[in-house]
Amino acid sequence: MADGRFNVLGGALLPCSLDPLTGFLRDGCCAEHAEDPGQHTVCTRVTDDFLSFSREQGNDLSTPRPEYGFSGLRPGDHWCVCAARWIEALLAGHAPPIVLAATDEAILDSVSLETLVAYAVDRP
């Protein structure tokens, strides 16, 4: 759990993934941090469609980068995605499903809870 952070449902922010290890701090959580200009706050279950879309936008998440300890993502992996990239994917019709309990409430400044619930794998 991210200390003191809440998810979009108002509960404690739960970890998104420990394998692969995600989050701006690589602590498994999609928590908002002042030092994170990308706002990696949306916990997604990545799809092949989203990975292709992200690669086309210049952010290749599927190619391993061993020099950074990154093994590359595969469809079905959970990953903290930048809020702006998830919104961009949403508008383009490529948004991956999200895990509400592991998505930081900060995204609610940009996306309605109704929209998030429509893409949720853990609907309330």
Automatic annotation (TrEMBL):
<protein>
    <recommendedName>
        <fullName>DUF2237 domain-containing protein</fullName>
    </recommendedName>
</protein>
<dbReference type="InterPro" id="IPR018714">
    <property type="entry name" value="DUF2237"/>
</dbReference>
<dbReference type="Pfam" id="PF09996">
    <property type="entry name" value="DUF2237"/>
</dbReference>
